[in-house]
Design goal:
The chain is α+β, with helices and mostly antiparallel strands. The chain folds into 2 domains: 27-123, SH3 type barrels (Roll); 131-420, Fumarylacetoacetase-like, C-terminal domain (Fumarylacetoacetate hydrolase, domain 2), CATH 3.90.850. The chain has helices at 51-56, 75-79, 82-96, 101-104, 107-113, 138-149, 225-231, 244-250, 333-341, 369-372, and strands spanning 27-31, 39-44, 47-50, 114-116, 121-123, 131-134, 165-168, 173-175, 180-181, 184-187, 196-199, 203-204, 207-213, 232-239, 242-243, 264-266, 271-272, 280-281, 301-302, 305-311, 319-325, 352-354, 380-381, 387-388, 396-404, 409-420. Strands 6, 7, 8, 13, 14, 16, 17 and 22 form an 8-stranded mixed beta sheet that branches. The protein has a 5-stranded antiparallel beta sheet with strand order 4-3-2-1-5. A 5-stranded mixed beta sheet has the order 9-26-25-20-21, with no helix packed on it. Helix 7 packs across helix 9. The protein is globular. It binds calcium ion. Calcium ion (CA) binds next to loops.
Amino acid sequence: MSPNDPALRSFIDVPADCDFPIQNLPYGVFSTAANPKPRAGVAIGDVILDLAVIESAGLLPKISRPGVFGEATLNAFMASGPRTWAGVREAISKLLRHDEATLRDNAELRQNAFVARKDAKLHLPLRVSAFTDFYSSKEHATNAGTMIRGPENALQANWLHIPIAYNSRANTIVVDGTPVRRPLGQIKGPDHPSPIFTACRRLDFELEMAAVVGQPTTMGEYISVDQAQASIFGFVLLNDWSARDIQAWEYVPLGPFMAKAFATTIGAWIVPAEALEPFRVHGPKQDPEPLPYLRQKGPMNYDLNLQVDLTPAGASQATTITRTNFSYMYWSSAQQLAHHTSSGCAMSVGDVLGSGTISGPEKSQRGSMLELSWGGKEPMTLDDGSVRSFLEDGDTVTFRGWCQGKGYRVGFGTAAGTITPAANPPE
Ligand code: CA
């Protein structure tokens, strides 16, 4: 049976609304109080399967370098290549099946190999080699462009031809749950004669998915869209926190810099691209037709539901402020990666490609507060009565994402962060 077969069942109990059924098997890195060494695991139901234990027990296919699952990042495993990814996923799927005795009936092995998710500390699952952030939602680009340049010139002339992006910061990517400090920066409002250096006043999130590159490319060579798709190890939730006021002043002429360099949150669980195969769908029609190196045959987007919850400072209850879908993206992750290599730019294992803010056609599907509050002109009222245009200290933003199967969902866990007060600016 294929690891994606909807009929598969595990001996681990998994409710239908749990993100981690046997059809998912996402990879993460975790540690426990009993064993503080970070190592790789796979989430299933409310437990984590310790892959270092399973590998030591000789229950996984041979990988070029033994011991990769005992390492603190998934990079060495990712570097082992798509054939190994598939073989390992198949072996894990088999071990967890309800009708497979090897692990199910070995009490001692089960004792060592399973950890309750609530008892585990989750770490950044990969060493991020580089972080590129795209801008591939037509709705988001149109909304942002309308606010900046007006509806006539919302999309720049290049947008329908090129997956637009900039090189961002890899080393401020943090894992789900890490607090995010409000950044300081230069801002210059219309009434300021000159810029001031102060705490950001228009702090925002950007709802994104990220593709994790699992295969390197050679400098000077480019890959096709199909090769790009095969090079993607998996996908993870990504919040590209953004300081809109700092961005507005600094972005001319080279694009965002410090406004998006202070923190980027990713989920703790990387869902294998293979687990998303049943949810592949066509994206929006691309018109004009892309240049030949960007043309894709068949569906390259994913039917992946996304939700953003905002818990205002001091509240016990979250308000869902956005529900949208990854399938709305104009440029697919495979096109983004193919384009990224097109000049001869070398890609590395562990490169993270942010999709760009994911907004849909409806107002309730907008993937940033900039769009939801229309630049602050239409503040949102939350369920507890608080009003927000941008984020305040103590606010928590939580992303969730899942592909809905028949009777199960392939989910991504959460990518959450709470805003803490800015540092004091120098006198
Ligand atoms: Ca972004």
